[in-house]
Amino acid sequence: MKRALIFGSTGGIGQAIAKQLAADGWSLYLHYDHNESAAQKLQKKFSQKFPKQDFFTLKLSFLDSMKDIKDILATIFPVNALIFAQGITDYNFLKDQDFATIDKIMQVNLVVPIKIVSFLENMLLKYDHSRIIFLGSVYGKQASALESVYSASKGGLSAFSKGYAREVASSHLTVNVLAPGAVDTPMNNIFDQDTLDEVKSEIPAGRLAQGSDVAYWVKTLLSEKADYLTGQTIYIDGGWLV
Predict the structure, then answer these.
(1) What residues make up the domain containing 195?
(2) Element (H or E) spanning 135, and its range?
(3) Domain annotation covers residue 242
(4) CATH number of the domain bearing residue 220
(5) Which of 46, 139, 178, 188 has the least C-beta neighbours within 10 A?
(6) Is residue 241 part of a domain?
(7) Is 150 an annotated catalytic residue?
(8) How many domains does the chain divide into?
(9) Sign of the C-alpha dihedral computed for residues 148, 149, 150 and 152 taken in this order
(10) Are 179 and 150 in contact (CB under 8 A)?
(11) What value does the mean pLDDT take over residues 110-138?
(12) What is the mean pLDDT of residues 99-116?
């Protein structure tokens, strides 16, 4: 079976992943929180282009109660891949972040994804080759000032994946983190062009990553031949920080 649930499918990286997997023969759940029109546009495009595959949209907020989240997830058809491409940050000094903001970042980036994995584990273990892929960050290893909470949440994904992967490795359920560096997505619109140019100058590859650079590695990890790679964090940063 090739059916995946992509959380955050309407984001810059999420859309690139969805396009790659649809072209590779996967049926998809396209998760969104607020951007319903983008999710529906993807669904319509994929359904027309790949009529032998199934494409569904799935509205779910990571800030809802776990009861509500579980009720929604209990309605989906079985999947054998979870891809967590959602994520939020708040570029600020810690002292200027209120507790609600800190809680929100940790809940969306780390806590709820772990709980979703726990809830869907039995489904994933039914299949011969199941996958969990988290989108982390280079800042999960080399933390960033002004994004200390974000860095903690992404580092937590790597630590969780390393431990959880050992629990389920014998079942051919792999758990890995893809950790991009600077990616050319709307998330970087908070920075002016001079700042982005300075970042580019620090990257040995000479450019920001594209969503397709990340999507390639998602496709690779989803291969049935990738059963032996688990518990790893793969850094996709053009030689920048790690």
Answers:
(1) 3-236
(2) strand 130-135
(3) no
(4) 3.40.50.720
(5) 188
(6) no
(7) yes
(8) 1
(9) positive
(10) no
(11) 97
(12) 98
